[in-house]
Amino acid sequence: MQQKARTRVSQRGTIAIPPAFLKALGVNAGDEVLLLVQDGELRITTQQRRIQQAQRRAHRYLKSGRSLVDELLADRRTAAKHE
Has this prediction a pTM greater than 0.70? Predict the structure, then answer.
């Protein structure tokens, strides 16, 4: 769903984000957001959203039933035995 709004930049360089936009992003008062300028546009997202995107990308390359966490823990335990 695409939403559009028009706002003005204040003298201090701030902008107000409409509550409907914040709600669509799952952002609440006091939450931290990430800002990214990409291709001449400002993107606003959350750390949680970025993590979810990375997990989806990584998941495409994993075989079903494979756990990278379990593999990492096993590797760390093996390394610890040899220290």
Answer: no
What letters, b where the CB count within 10 A reaches 16 and e where it falls short, cover 17-28? eeeeeeeeeebe
Residue 23 counted as domain residue: no
Contact 33/45 with Cβ under 8 angstroms? yes
In a domain, 32, yes or no: no
Q: What is the pLDDT at residue 49? A: 87
**Residue 69 structural domain:** 46-81
Residue 18 counted as domain residue = no
CB 28 within 8 A of CB 13: no
- Nearest-Å Rg of the Cα atoms of the chain is 20
Quick check: is 26 in a domain? no
Confidence at 3, pLDDT banded by 50, 70, 90: confident
Q: What is the pLDDT of residues 62-73, one digit of tens each?
A: 878 888 888 899
Ordered alpha helix ranges (H), 7-67? 19-25, 47-59
